[in-house]
Write a structure and sequence with these properties.
Largest sheet: 6 strands, mixed
Structural class: alpha/beta
Strand content: 5-15%
Oligomer: single chain
Distance between the termini: 151 Å
């Protein structure tokens, strides 16, 4: 028995020794383990960099979301729309996106993320508000002006410039129906000038009032014409004083009168000459050539002739002047016809400018209405889009209620506040633009009335 026990103890001891030998590491194993342990810190460093990159990406993403947190409604309007805005909206997809929002978001953060998904596009409207330009058609061609001229607020005012040339040669001193033709002509001219459009500029130029109709007075008479009433609006007292300041006495230098009177026209506007004469040129000039030269000088005045008690030969000579001046010849064989001619001409001028004024006022009013309607349509479409955005957010909130940890009621309230903010901004901006259109229209109507006649 003792021998058997001693044998068993020996076996056990040898077994323990073998186990000890197996567990003791070799030097090679220790070296490999040391290398592995040395490499571990590098693996830890790489993991830290990855974490840092992830954090940076998350920070940038969060910063993109926080762009919706601004007090500037203009900035909100200029932001890019959400991923599923407009026709891209897919409610099921958005609902799944919202359900996967990170936990622990504040209500504002959750709302920002929802806008990143569903915010509508208002950039076009804000760009319109920032850069809107009122558009009106150019004014139509003014009466008597062959080439249409562009009218803008910066351009010089276009006037109606009327010069009346009176023949004060000796023959005008003759009587007609017991009254000097000169007096009849003066009365008719005074009435005509008083009936011109209120904004018209009128001038009075006389010829044949110097020297005499005798040989010794011819040189003086044929060499002088004179403006007695310079271009200005009609003033009854001053104009009458100008008419009273001369008498019929000399020869008939019509060509010189056209040349000198034509040189006095302003650089812009509609220019018209009315020549009252009882005879043809008697100073050797060529009125037709003088008229054609005036037409090619850039002034392009229309020249009308009123033949007052003239014979056939004189009428033909005067008609040739009117033809060269692209005007008309009016026959006035007596005082009544002279008055009638001037009266009809003043009515024609008044009617032409009245028609021009009313046509352009109507055109501007139609343009104003078109712009106002367009702005109103833009407003309604944009406000409807903001309402769609609100309704979509509310619908998504309803479907995720109970499956998210943010307060859906607070997010819904934030959505309503955004809708009201954007809608109010759109209305106010549209009203400001509409006011700008109306103010521009008022300015153009004033410009039109300044260039035309008053009622």
């Amino acid at each position: 028995m003792k021998k058997r026990i001693a044998c068993l103890m020996l076996c056990a001891f040898l077994g323990l020794a073998a186990c000890s030998e197996e567990e003791e590491p070799s030097s090679e194993t220790i070296q490999d383990q040391t290398v592995d342990e040395a490499e571990e810190p590098e693996e830890l460093d790489e993991t830290a960099e990855d974490v840092e990159d992830d954090l940076e990406s998350e920070a940038k993403a969060e910063e993109a979301f926080t762009r919706y947190e601004t007090d500037s409604v203009e900035e909100l309007m200029r932001q890019e729309p959400g991923l599923y805005h407009g026709d891209e909206f897919d409610e099921d997809t958005v609902v799944e996106e919202v359900k996967n929002f990170p936990e622990g978001l504040t209500d504002q953060q959750a709302f920002n993320r929802m806008l990143n998904l569903m915010a509508e596009d208002f950039r076009e409207e804000q760009d319109l508000f920032d850069n809107y330009e009122v558009q009106f058609e150019e004014l139509t061609e003014m009466p008597g002006v062959e080439q249409a001229q562009e009218m803008t607020e910066q351009e010089e005012k276009q006037d109606l410039n009327v010069q009346i040339l009176i023949d004060a040669s000796g023959s005008m001193a003759a009587e007609m129906d017991g009254k000097p033709k000169m007096d009849i002509a003066k009365e008719a001219v005074q009435t005509f000038a008083s009936n011109l459009p209120e904004e018209a500029n009128v001038a009075l130029h006389v010829y044949g009032h110097k020297g005499s109709n005798q040989t010794e007075g011819k040189e003086e008479s044929c060499s002088q014409t004179e403006t007695l009433y310079s271009f200005n609006q009609y003033d009854e007292v001053d104009f009458q004083a100008s008419l009273d300041s001369f008498q019929a006495t000399g020869y008939t230098p019509i060509a010189l009168a056209i040349e000198e009177a034509g040189a006095l026209f302003p650089e812009s506007g509609e220019n018209i000459i009315y020549i009252v004469s009882d005879g043809e040129e008697t100073c050797g000039g060529n009125p037709v050539e003088a008229t054609m030269s005036l037409q090619h000088s850039g002034v392009s005045a229309v020249v009308h002739i009123i033949g007052f008690d003239v014979n056939d030969a004189e009428r033909q000579a005067l008609e040739a002047i009117a033809d060269a001046g692209e005007g008309e010849y009016f026959r006035a064989d007596n005082a009544e016809m002279l008055d009638e001619t001037f009266s009809q001409e003043s009515e024609n001028l008044e009617l032409e400018w009245l028609q021009w004024r009313n046509t352009n006022i109507l055109n501007n009013l139609m343009s104003k209405n078109d712009q106002t309607l367009s702005l109103l349509e833009m407003q309604n479409a944009a406000i409807l889009r903001s309402l769609d955005e609100l309704n979509r957010i509310i619908s998504v909130i309803y479907k995720v209620n109970g499956e998210v940890d943010f307060d859906v009621r607070e997010v819904r309230e934030l959505a309503r506040e955004r809708k009201d903010l954007i809608s109010d901004h759109i209305r106010t901006s549209r009203e400001d633009l509409d006011k700008k259109v109306r103010e521009t229209l008022d300015g153009r109507e004033e410009e039109i009335r300044d260039n035309g006649s008053e009622d």
